[in-house]
Known about the structure:
By secondary structure, the protein is α/β, with parallel strands linked by helices.
Amino acid sequence: MILKNANIYYNGQLNKGAILIQDGIIKSIYKESDTNNFNLLKESNKDKIEIDCKERCILPGMIDIHSHLRDMGQSDKETFYSGTKAAAYSGITTVFTMPNTKPPAITAKQLSKWKNKAKNNIFIDVGFISGVPKSINEDEIKKILKLGIVGFKIYPLKPLNGIDWTIGNNIQRLLHISANYQVPIFIHADWPLRTGEEEYLKKEYSKLPFLKLHNKLHPEKNEARYVNFILDNYMEFIKIRSPQFFNPIIHFCHISCKESFIEIKNFMEKTKDLSNIYVSFEVTPHHLLLSNEINLKNEAIGKVLPPLRDKTEPTYLFKQLKEGNISLIGTDHAPHTINEKLTNKFKAPNGFPGFETYSYLLLQKVLENEISLKRFVEVSSENPSQKFNLKNKGFIEEGKDADLIIIDKVKKHSITSHKFKTKAKFTPFENSEISHRQTQILIWKVFLRGQEINSEKIRPSGKII
């Protein structure tokens, strides 16, 4: 297949030309000016399929390193089929999925069941992140590692395994596992409230709008405190570890505030002369673009952890993204049923779907010159590919998987949740500001290994990473 008459993003910029795809791989990339080579390209095109892109832009498929695909005991919220279809239609061709399943994926047996659910039911490629087994059992960890996971995830607020993740010795044991097996640890950073503190805060701030109250229950200082706790443990670990051994790999999920960002920045500055420091973090689109001042008919739609912060926080984080100080984005796609969100606000679950807003929101910022196309491709494709060793993903280069998205400019497009492919048909971005722009971005075609996947005719062809 040939994608011709296109603006192709490679080598850090858009180049007019064509792409030859064979057996799911990018075989050749040709510049438009090279007529002779294009004729050779046509001769090499085995299936004789040619798609005229009409000067649309071709970008590498997006990689979302943080999602919740549910299924198993939560198939009413989402299934592998519905979730990956939503991602496919949004330009996301690879996702990592988190282990707070029902039951939680904290054993090799449970993880195998979870992965088996995905077989023949995923439209994109999926990597699995496991919970930590009870008692940090190393024999069970070895069994899980043999299943080919991306990493382990910890939740200090509601541990999946009964382990107290505010105890330094437990963190040290986990860092030992990470270092020995070179497996990443994904961290939800939030220090738990003291007993009785939640009820006190609810009374103290009862007059605040719900989303601002929710922010008080999970304040920025608690996130930053947990980030600092982990980084202190990391430093303690590498000080006593022999220099010929590897260091642990840690990744902070959904960093949501300036205070946490600065803690990580200062740590990286302090350790810049040390070798093999493996610390990274991601930011979500909603923590870049929304605040707790958003006006929603049902405030529980915007309830998420970490909470939407005061407006100074997304303003600060977006500036850091623009300046190149944020390297990774994860949606934290967290589908729930609408009935759950319509219950008592305090009992409503945290989270909302993120696949079908991510690409549109960030590409709109590119269109309006608020961030560069280069920055978008780096954070959405190139950096996650390099950070998590996805060797065939993230770049438009000869020999890489033909995971591609083709984008178009249209006069009218809006984020409308009832059209979502996910089961969770709600979003705090409903009828957002991009709906009122004269020109918007539209995902025209999405390819996974050269197969168009944003089509109702296609069958699931994704692979488990």
